[in-house]
Design goal:
By secondary structure, the protein is an alpha/beta fold. It has six helices and five strands.
Length: 209
Amino acid sequence: MTSNSLLPTAGLADSASLFIADMERWLERAVIGLNLCPFAKAVHVKGQIHYAVVNAQRPDEVLRVLRQELADLAASPEDERDTTLLVMPHGFPDFLDFNDFLGEADDLLESMGLAGVLQIASFHPRFQFAGTAEDDVTNCTNRAPYPTLHLLREASIDRAVAVFPEAETIYERNMEVLQSLGGSGWAALGVGATVMPSGDPVKKNGEGG
């Protein structure tokens, strides 16, 4: 599985592997373990997920890194890099700010001529569906340890859907799985952040998700 740290200072660079470990734990225990995405296991097992951990807080800084990661993914062989997780431990602590930024990310994709080639999905530790309470467990379907942009190939999505013709049922099933699991069940998975953006460990009762 490939990884890439874009953190500039030595101390923060040392933390990149910890941020990635949190993301891998979330992927294995929640996304794959609960089968929230039937397409995730194959690329994970094959080591085709690229992790980019970026020390960026301002939207313009994130957009610069996002531009490079989109270009790199588009130029990479699919069997080596199928998808990218751009992890931002230092950026967008507020979910509404992050949600607003997604429009800028899609505008960048369009301006690069990559719309229809790649697409951008997103996860946030404080993700909240409209009309739900913050502690509604169904929000966890879109929660990750850190704010994350998921860069996907349209061709890979098309192939995955072709072998899973009832893809539109995934959302409903995920809601049922999370409701059955409950908040305590989700917490027991241990898939929240274990390290602060500063590189310090999260306190025992401070686990996200």
